[in-house]
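General statements about sequence and structure are easier to judge against a single worked case. When preparing material for the folding task, we compiled for one chain both its residues and its backbone structure tokens. The amino acid sequence and the backbone structure tokens for this protein are reproduced below:
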Amino acid sequence: MAHAADAPGSGSGAHRVNTAPVTETESSAFRTFNSPGSTSIRARNSTARPMAGGEAGSGRTIFASSTGFCNYPSGTGTGSQDTPFCKVQDAVDAAQSGDTVDVVGSMGYFTQDPVTVKTSGISIVGIGSQAWISPGGKPAITLDGVSDVTISNLMLSSFGAPAVVVKGSSRVTLDSSYVDLNPNVRGVDAITVDGASADVTVSRTYVDAGFWSAGASGISIAAGASRIRLASDVFAVAGITATGVNGLDVVGNTAQRGCSAAVEVKGASSGVHIENNLFEDANPNTDYMMGGFKSNCTSAGQAWAPDVVVSADSAAGTVADYNAFYVYDSDATALYGWAGTAYPTLAGFRAGSGQGAHDAIDTVQAGGVYFRPNKSANVDAQPRAGSAVIGSADPNAPGRLASDFYGTSPYTGRGAIQLANPNPGLGVSLSGKNTSAYGISLTAGVTSASVPLTVSIAWGDGSTETASGNGNTSVTRSHSYAKLGNYTVAVTVKDDSGITVSNSVAVTTAGSAYTAYGPTRLLDTRDGTGAAKPQPVQPYSSARVRIVGNGGIPSGVTAVVLNVTVTGTSSGGHITAYGEGDPRPSTSNVNFTAGQTVPNLVVVPVGANGYVDLYNGGWGAVDLIADITGYFTRSASSGYTPVPPARLVDTRNGTGAAAAQVAAYDSVPVQISGLGGLPGSGVTAVALNVTVTNPRSAGHLTVYPDGQATPVASNVNYGEGQTIANSVIVPVGPDGKIRVHNGGWAPTDVIVDVVGYYSPAGRSAYLPIDPERLLDTRDAASWGDGPVGGRGYVYMPLAAGHPDITGFVFNSTVTNTADSGHLTVSPDPNSLAAYQGGYASWPATPSVSTLNWRAGGTVPNLVQANAGSNGIVDFWNVSDGNLDLIVDMFGYYQND
């Protein structure tokens, strides 16, 4: 980062460090979170497929042509795939039980030869979409006295006679076929089942009576028939008529009825279930010839019957429920005619019959479907978004199929067709990134057909928002969480057809909250604490400090607060603390010279393996001591609140304690809660600068919570007559106090300054950065103003205009000191605009100290600096001589 001198303020000696705002310095805690589009979950499987052929038999496969002509020399064919029979009837006659007849069609061609099946146990399967049998005046196919016969995927049409006739047959199935009468002769039914037949299924079949007039049914079932299943069929201007049937399941059909009822149960029928159907009186967009409108029926003298009619003799043996009704304008009719009473409303029907508890009125018209080439015009059978039929079927309805008209499953809707998927590529990928301590930015990349979309985001904390789009689109939104932690962001995309996909991604806030701990000694190379054996740390090598799992320290620790002391030094050097496995930074945490014992507080990221390394950058071996006072995690705990630096204790003049030195091996209580801008309760830990001065012997200070035994740890190590300071973050006792213990064998004065505190109510979370050197006044290439003059200051506009940045974690080092003195770090009262405009006032020199030195000394200290209201931090040389200043930044606090 480049540094340059700015114009001085109103007093000589003020220098600006030109740095990039901290908001442009991405925290090393920022991560990305991704979930690819391939993980999108479709809310329902609605991809329709072409009509499937039926199951093949267990024996031979015999081939026949439905084109109506052959060019073989024999004129008949052999039934092989290369030379199929020229007539379907020949193949059917040649089949034996267990055989399958494959009827091969060709687009636009059909055979006019009718087919009669008299052999049981065979299957007849249409190959392709145009296996077409269409005789004139005769049924296309007749099942005569057979059992266990399956017919599938055929086109069967006729005029003047039913297209399909079932007589005296049992266990027969007509599946996935197309049946129509065109043109029709009034009074002719498309499919007939006589009274001697039983166990007959018509499923996934299009049935068209060819005309809207009364008297022509799509399927007619005669008295005496039993166990008939009509499931997932589509009826075009046609309906179902059953007389005196014993066991009838009408389930999951879509009927666009003509003048007659969609379902009429007559005579004394029993065991009848009418469920999960969609009945349409009429649909204004129907592209079907002549349509089934009430006006057509009225003008032709035809009645406009209720949708479902059940005779009085059949009512007791009939169940009607889970049906949906689409009624249109003046074409609306009674929904039910039940035991002779017409019920135009569902409420009336429920009250009068005790049936239809789950029936619904569908207010969304179905869309057109084109069923077969060369035959079907659009019939309104495709559900649309918002339809009452979607996902509302009774899964336990008798006779219900597992898949819909097209073979789509799961099949959860009423009517024959599950909601189609006009948007098969619909998907959403998610990409998120931390943007602040509490904030993330999320991008939803949607792939879609060019249709309107609604994108809904659930942030995982109870808040939601929506956006609109069209086709392939990207939606980016930002969100700030109220609490640190882990969240699952879920995104749902819905197109205008009601197709829905969703995806989710787990995110974690970048900020970390503080948990007070100890003080506890984790490492002492002098006696082997935390090490394999007592042994100094060799030059240019590291000591490992186990953090996670050491005592009660949990996993997930992002950073740790250690008091690191170097002793037994034989040369000059420095100590660098960093997370094990991370690149070792070029910055330093503790600087020392030969013979010195130097402590310094460090806030250091923890490696992925739970360790911190302490690197000896000197050319002589040293002993290292590390005491923990707390740690940070990405979960709600205690947030930081900076306060203007304030003096709590000065034993030299009686501030906050008796005006007397602290005796050897004695301690002094320090009131924390309620003083120095701190609240009266709720403080879990406090950030201090503790200074020892006028000591009469060498020793150390230990700062710890009031009410605890004095721990084996140290915060400030000193020599006789030395003035030295160190930053301290220490838990606060239950009584709101801490203690400062003098571990020397002679009295000393103690000074305690507060710079901030941690509490559950604190909002500011810690964000580490890759350690960065902001200032080194010795470096002429990056700093052209030379040493900091006596009584002068350097100001750093690190977060000007960003009130969400509340504080910084620096390591400040003074060296080449020409006079004894102290360094003070404090927020600047001037705005950046005042400095830029040349009218900034000279700030008052703060009365607290951050680090102290003697002339010629090199002294480091951690600084938790308050950003103040202007985001500018001042570094004061409170001495009469010049000094060089080195400032490294390790992280910052942010409340948003």
User: Anything to note?
Assistant: Residues 661 and 714 are 19 Å apart (CA to CA). The helical segments are 88-94, 294-299, 312-315, 346-353, 832-837.
